[in-house]
Design brief:
Largest sheet: 5 strands, mixed
Strand content: 35-45%
CATH class: Mainly Beta
Shape: globular
Mean pLDDT: 88
Number of strands: 27
Distance between the termini: 56 Å
Radius of gyration: 21 Å
Helix content: under 10%
Structural class: mainly beta
Strand order of the largest sheet: 1-20-19-18-17
Number of domains: 1
Low-confidence stretches: 1-18, 213-244
Length: 409
Amino acid sequence: MTMKLAKAALLFTLASVVAWPQVNVGEQKPEATAPFTMTTVATFKLPWHIAFLPDGRMLVTEKVGPVWLVSQQGEKIQIENTPAVYWQGQCGMLGVFLSPHYATDHSIYLTYVEPGTYGGGYALARAKLNATATSAKLENFEVLWRQLPTGKGGQAGGPIAFSPDGKYLFLAVGDRQRMTPAQDPDQPVGKILRLTLDGKPAPGNPNAGKTGAATLPLIDPPSDTEAAKNAKVVSTYTLTSPNLTPAETWASGVRTPYGLAFSPAGELWEVEHGPRGGDELNLIERGKNYGWPLVSYGMNYNGVPIPSPDTRPDLAKPALYWVPVIAPGNLMFYTGAKTFPQWNGSGFVSGLATKCITRILFDGHGGAKTAERWDIGKRVRSVQEAPDGSLWIVEDANPGALIHLTPKK
């Protein structure tokens, strides 16, 4: 009898893990109405990301370079001593994130594309934020990690996520429109990296302790055009660097990772753009390969088919995918039970192409399914939660609006 009960419990557990199967949610229609009021508070030049300070003020990045300290009434202070950026297409100033120990170290992290030879290189930096009521500047600025070699091409990435224990950070690195290096273990592009808070390879990574030289491709013509997304490798050279070792890699085979966040259950989730179709929501796990550019639910921009993930059981499949695309801007998890209590624990994905916000439910066992999709009427680059539980979004436009979402009364 005990054995039968044990088997029954095991079957129930397995059933709960696969209760929400992987599906295409690209055809989802928006709700007739939205349960929130939208109020435009300020505008920016191509705003990219929002990070909230404990006092309710926010840091807002502009892709063209500046980072701003912004009050909830729309008063803006440009932050001094921000780094120079290589601004072209999808490149520029990207993400801004508070240290998990901000209360004591007052540090913030920036992700951006810095100027370099033949274009720019994706970089991760840290600095202390010195902010008063009337001024703000960065102090003790240091670059913790650089993508080498530099070059043209978009799809750098931008998001980072801190581990729930506050000891490590996960850095999403896009394929920079170079495609095949996403499968090269000696190159950082197309990977999710796990680093210490100082930007070093974290202990316990799948290839911890390994070093080596990487053969690095150059792309021509590397630009941000659709055609360049299928650019060919025209030359290579070998470069040995501590920033090009497989010891940093946690997972591989990602394309354009624009969202990365830990769920309340402690799972790490990522959203990325597919090519022509096939945006993905992935559960990121140690050592797994997510298939790009070997497989996709989309196709190349030149019309050449890509094998379906269903043909490669050895590669990790997305939990959800979108055909047609939503062009996700970011991913965040909502915890403001007092403001929108019905959404507590939900994930939110912003949509550029669909001009929407999508709410996603997670089962805590690697499963996800969409709930509502709300039409915002603007290309939503980022959605974030304020300390009071209200939501804020920035519009991907120039000028792009900073909009406050509050419950309808």
